[in-house]
Design goal:
Strand content: under 5%
Number of helices: 23
Order of helices and strands: HHHHEHEHHHHHHHHHHHHHHHHHH
Largest sheet: 2 strands, antiparallel
Strand order of the largest sheet: 1-2
Shape: globular
Radius of gyration: 23 Å
């Protein structure tokens, strides 16, 4: 059965690969038509009307997202205590003091929290956050479309960011940190434009700082951002101000990583017992394409599946490989324990430390091959629609039906889109550094997602990398031909 599933996936990969020349030719024709159509900046009125149309589609068509338990990370910055999964409400009564923000979205939420407090409101209106995120996204896109000297890219940019917004716009009706990555995506491209045509790196620096601080996962993107900065402007390490910009971006990434320590226990557990466990149990062969289905399949066949990994089971008496922190959890981790139980818990969690996992993979090369193989198969053939977090409250509206079909359809094939994009980039404007960036990003993203939290909610963790596809597609066109003058 598993072999047949992999065979079907392999046939899809072969068919997509064989169709690449035709696809590239058609894309080239489409983009050339767009370049001829938009030789000059689009009129402000037309741009504003189009962006308003996109906003109405998402505002009316998408319902609020369901919390998977992560809303508390952002809710603590809005004076609200949310410790259980629930659909995002329009209004939350203040019931606690706001804490120090630990992410970019947390900063935005806090900036909206204090005016509501000062104005005498008794609760937090989440619609303000929806408007703020849309304002950030559309301001960046508007300025990008109005920029001069971008004849070839104006049409493709409009197409890419429209698709990105319509596919992932539901994140703006949530408290998930991914929403900030989506909001900042046009600003990253605008920053590259400013570097090439104005010799100014301030927009790119600010957008990059906010991007890498948006979510601890973005530590993976930090080298990509620095490499793109250097690719587009080779004077980065010569000019003092630009070198300082790189240092600030790196510090922001380190700060995000530092604040992630409060989730270390969950990540350590899932990194080994779920990530390594499911790989040993050949998750890529299971008849499931998303996290809820995989969890259901595992717990329905737990005994049989754990037979595949029993050789590497740390404690055969208490087999844990394949389980995840949720719903298995370790309730005793958060309770008061005596020294003996504390030592046992720490021993369980230690196996998931990054150093311990890397040592395990080095000591077992065959397991390492199986580990990476399962990661890439799962990344390729997963359904990224995360329907379990989208109740589709607005589905009765015709616009909601259309958006749900569009988003679900695109995200169903997102794994193939992700790797096709990587292959396209390898043949466009060949360059050694560009190849390194593309290889690192498209081969490393799935591995880093699993290293972060195992296969638990793998699809949601990959969304932040899918949101950066416009940046990866466009940065080869923003290379500065000669070093710009110091600012």
């Amino acid at each position: 059965m598993g072999w047949m599933l992999n065979k079907s996936v392999a046939s899809k990969v072969v068919s997509v690969t064989l169709s690449m020349p035709i696809l590239l030719a058609r894309l080239k024709n489409i983009f050339s038509v767009m370049a001829r159509t938009w030789k000059n900046p689009i009129g402000p009125g037309w741009v504003s009307a189009y962006l308003l149309f996109l906003f109405v589609l998402v505002a009316v068509g998408y319902g609020p997202m369901v919390s998977n338990g992560d809303y508390w990370r952002t809710a603590q910055n809005m004076g609200v205590n949310l410790d259980h999964p629930a659909i995002l409400a329009d209004y939350y009564q203040f019931n606690t003091l706001a804490t120090l923000p630990k992410s970019t979205l947390g900063i935005l939420v806090a900036l909206l929290y204090w005016p509501q407090r000062w104005l005498g409101f008794h609760g937090y209106h989440t619609v303000l956050l929806f408007y703020a995120l849309n304002a950030i996204f559309f301001c960046g896109l508007y300025r990008l479309l109005q920029a001069k000297d971008t004849d070839r890219l104006r049409g493709p940019m409009l197409l890419m960011f429209s698709a990105l917004y319509l596919v992932f716009g539901f994140y703006f009706k949530s408290l998930y940190e991914e929403s900030m990555v989506l909001a900042l995506s046009p600003w990253m491209n605008l920053g590259l434009y400013r570097i090439k045509y104005q010799g100014n790196s301030k927009v790119f620096t600010l957008a990059s700082v906010l991007l890498v601080f948006a979510k601890v996962q973005m530590i993976f993107v930090l080298p990509v951002v620095i490499a793109i900065f250097y690719y587009c402007d080779a004077s980065v390490f010569v000019c003092k101000s630009k070198r300082f910009s790189c240092e600030v971006i790196i510090l922001a990434g380190m700060a995000a990583f530092h604040f992630s320590g409060i989730y270390a226990q969950i990540n350590d557990y899932d990194r080994f017992y779920n990530g390594m466990g499911w790989s040993l149990q050949k998750v890529s062969t299971w008849p499931a394409r998303n996290t809820p289905d995989r969890l259901r399949y595992f717990y329905q066949h737990q005994t049989q599946l754990q037979l595949r990994s029993k050789t590497f089971e740390p404690d055969p008496v208490d087999p844990r490989l394949g389980t995840s922190f949720f719903p298995t959890e370790l309730p005793q981790v958060r309770g008061k324990l005596d020294d003996r139980h504390k030592a046992a818990i720490l021993k369980i969690l230690f196996r998931g430390r990054m150093v311990a996992l890397c040592g395990f993979l080095i000591a077992h090369p065959g397991v390492a091959i199986q580990y990476f193989k399962n990661i890439y198969w799962v990344a390729l053939d997963s359904d990224y629609a995360v329907r379990y977090l989208r109740p589709q409250i607005a589905i009765h509206v015709p616009i909601g039906v259309m958006l749900a079909g569009l988003s679900n359809g695109v995200l169903y094939w997102a794994g193939y889109v992700f790797y096709c994009t990587g292959m396209v980039l390898l043949v466009v404007k060949p360059n050694g550094l560009k190849w390194m960036v593309i290889g690192y990003f498209f081969l490393g993203a799935p591995v880093f997602a699993v290293l972060g939290d195992g296969f638990y909610e793998f699809e949601k963790h990959m969304h932040v990398y899918l949101m950066l596809i416009p940046l990866l597609l466009s940065f080869p066109f923003y290379k500065v031909r000669c070093a710009s003058a110091p600012l």
